[in-house]
Structure formats: structure tokens, C-alpha cells
Amino acid sequence: MIGEFYDTIARLKDRNEVRLFFKSLLSADEIATLMRRVEIAVLLSAKFTYDQIATLMGVGKSKITNVQKNLLQDDSGYKIIAKRLINDRKIRLVKMKKGEKEKASSFSALKKKYPAHFLLDNLLDTAIEKLERNDKELEKEALLFTPSAGNKKFK
């Protein structure tokens, strides 16, 4: 019966079908609880401390410990999904940054055409420099690029 459950999930064709299935199967709170566990696994994989995770996620240390125990197993599904989530978030952030750069580039053309109207060149240059980060910084940002992270940041 459990194998059939896994097969049922594997047969879902796209994100919308997955959403509809889990929306019917679980409450919104249950889905949020599952995703919080996944986010905890991502942060543990990135070597965040229990205190940092507890503060960032608003969860107890016992929940973090339970996720950590699963991560330590060789067959942990958390490892698979954590790696994929980080990669997906990095791709999404790169696309967002690219869009911001394109907007900045268009703005640069306007600055050249109408130089008297743009006296704050340094601000734009500073913003563009911040867009160009190395992969480690992007990975750190991707780790914290979650709905539940809010505006809390750790350095």
C-alpha cells in the first residue's frame, strides 16, 4: 500500500497536479509544517547552527534535532531535496539579478542621453556592483531565499 502511495505521487504530471493532490490530502498547516522541515534540512546542510535556525525559522530545537537525525542517515530524502532547492533558488536569484541588470542598463542609456537629469550616478553604480556577487554569496542568499525567512539575515 505504501508503494502504491509513492507511485501515485510519481504519476502526478506537473506542479499544478501536485498542488491539487496535496491540497486535498493535507491542511495548509500540515503542508507548512512539512516545508518548514525541508527548510530546516537546507539550513542544516549549509552548516547553520541550531540557534540560528531556531531564530530564523521560529522552531524549537527538538524539531531541528529530528531533522538532523534524518539528515545523518545515508538514505535521507532531505539531502536530495535540499540540494535541488538550493540549486533552484540560485537559478531564480540569477534570473532576478539579470532582470535588475537589464533595467539598470536601460537606465544607463537614459543617463547618457540626458546627463543633467541624473546627478546621482554613484548610487546607481553602487547598486550595479552589488548585483555582481560571487557564487558563494549567491548560495548563501539562496539558502535564505524562503518565504518563512522573512527579513532575518545571518552573516
Brief rundown of the structure:
The chain is mostly helical. The chain has a single domain (2-149), classed as TrpR-like (Trp Operon Repressor, Chain A, Orthogonal Bundle), CATH 1.10.1270.10.
SSE topology:
Blueprint lengths: L1 H9 L4 H11 L2 H18 L4 H8 L3 H11 L5 H37 L7 H11 L3 H9 L12
Helix pairs in contact: 3-5, 3-6, 6-7, 6-8
What does this structure look like?
The chain has eight helices and no strands. It starts with a helix and ends in a 12-residue tail after the last helix. It has 155 residues and is an all-alpha fold. The protein has helices spanning 2-10, 15-25, 28-45, 50-57, 61-71, 77-113, 121-131, 135-143. Helix content is 74%, strand content 0%. The relative contact order is 0.10. The longest helix has 37 residues, at 77-113. The protein has a single domain, classed as TrpR-like (Trp Operon Repressor, Chain A, Orthogonal Bundle), CATH 1.10.1270.10.
Succession of helices and strands:
HHHHHHHH
Described by the principal axes of the CA atoms, the overall outline is extended
For the sheet with most strands, the description reads: none
End-to-end separation in angstroms reads: 46 Å
Structural class: mainly alpha
Q: Which key terms come to mind for this protein?
A:
extended; Trp Operon Repressor, Chain A; 8 helices; single chain; mainly alpha; 74% helix
